UniProtKB/TrEMBL annotation:
Subcellular compartments: Apical cell membrane; Cytoplasm
AstE/AspA barrel-sandwich hybrid domain mapped to chain residues: 245-324
Organismal lineage: Eukaryota, Metazoa, Chordata, Craniata, Vertebrata
Full protein name: N-acyl-aromatic-L-amino acid amidohydrolase
GO terms for MF: aminoacylase activity; hydrolase activity, acting on ester bonds; metal ion binding
Enzyme class (EC, first level): hydrolase
EC number in record: 3.5.1.114
Catalytic activity, reaction form: an N-acetyl-L-cysteine-S-conjugate + H2O = an S-substituted L-cysteine + acetate; an N-acyl-aromatic L-alpha-amino acid + H2O = an aromatic L-alpha-amino acid + a carboxylate
Keyword presence, Cell membrane: yes
CC cofactor: Zn(2+)
Length: 340
């Protein structure tokens, strides 16, 4: 499936995007000029047991990485209480707290800690949907699934698409792929949606509470390349458009469960385990019951992602099925009349 895209300023305003930052189907592929990126926020520890982002942020803060060329860099440890406890969250998942509705919900003493923290973060790097929001947010995550380096964004975000294309052309040590959320900005619940543009890095596999050097190196390289791209963009480099493969989630698959106790009765099948993004066809094994029986995939061929992600057990998700999409997008350059 292929889509040819350009900016639609009316749609951007309706969905809360920066005017030049939304795309819609068209046959015209002109170069798009955008304002420079002067404020870049790097966030880590949104989930307190995903160690790579936490330690990379501490490394950046220790070395006082606050500016790179014309862009100022803000580093934010997103969920300090969960980081101290080495837990995903204290009361509720922080990375589900950034919809417009939740950010407009009055805070009281009884509000969940993460909702209170979301309001604080919205004040630091937002407010979401405003001109005061930082230009770009990159949120750093780990997954226990075999995802390599995965960039998660909305494909209407042209900045994120170009950064993804750039990183994919540079990193060869692991597979680099993209998940396209296709969510309106107002309904997007993740921290990176607070910026004018934004995306998340998911790097794995890495167990919760564990730090792996190879995973750290991949994430650091991706962050360094993002800063490099921003500097080139701000300096006047034109980045050519083209095509990019993304994976668009269409369905969540739960584990088989006992109808009486609701406990799971099967595990991910060995032939599916660690095979994130590979095509899953009807009849392929997906679960192996504790009695040794095989459960097979029904329905059309799709691509499983976040296979056996530890944090998704509580969300009743064994894996997510995604459709591979080809997105076509225009070249971009910095606006000539904008000061950098």
């Amino acid at each position: 499936m292929s889509a040819c895209l350009k900016f639609d300023t009316k749609k951007a305003k309706e969905e809360g995007h920066q005017e030049e930052g939304s795309l819609t189907k068209t046959t015209k592929m002109d170069c798009v000029s955008l304002p420079p990126l002067s404020k870049f926020a790097i966030c880590g520890g949104t989930h307190g047991n995903e160690m790579t982002g936490i330690h990379l942020l501490r490394h950046l803060q220790k070395h006082k990485v606050e500016k790179a060329g014309s862009v100022s860099i803000t580093t934010v440890l997103s969920n300090p209480r969960a980081i101290d406890a080495c837990k995903r969250y204290i009361d509720t998942d922080l990375n589900r707290c950034f919809t417009h509705t939740l950010l407009r919900t009055p805070i009281t003493d009884s509000s969940p800690y993460e909702l209170q923290r979301a309001h604080e973060l919205n004040a630091i790097v937002g407010p979401k949907g405003s001109e005061e929001a930082v230009d770009l947010i990159c949120d750093l995550h780990n997954t226990t699934a075999n995802m390599g380096l995965c960039v998660i964004f909305n494909s209407t975000d042209l900045m994120a698409l170009h950064i993804y294309k750039y990183i994919k052309s540079k990193i060869t040590s692991v597979p680099v792929r993209a998940i396209d959320t296709r969510e309106p900005i107002s309904e997007n619940y993740s921290l990176d949606s607070v910026g004018k543009y934004g995306f998340s890095f998911e790097v794995g596999p890495q167990p919760n509470g564990v730090l792996r050097a190879d995973v750290f190196n991949v994430m650091k390289e991706a962050v360094d390349l993002t800063i490099e791209w921003i500097q080139q963009f701000n300096s006047g480099v034109t980045f050519d458009g083209g095509e990019a493969e993304t994976y668009c989630p269409v369905n969540k698959v739960d584990y088989p469960r006992d109808p009486t106790t609701n406990e799971i009765t099967a595990a991910i099948h060995p032939e599916l385990q660690d095979n994130d993004f590979k095509p899953l066809q009807p009849g392929d094994p997906i679960f192996q019951s504790f009695a040794g029986e095989t459960v097979k995939h029904e329905g059309k061929g799709l691509h499983p992602v976040f296979i056996n992600e530890c944090a998704y057990y509580e969300k009743r998700t064994a894996f997510i099925l995604a459709e591979k999409i080809t997105v076509t997008f225009p070249s971009i350059c910095v606006k000539k009349d904008c000061g950098v």
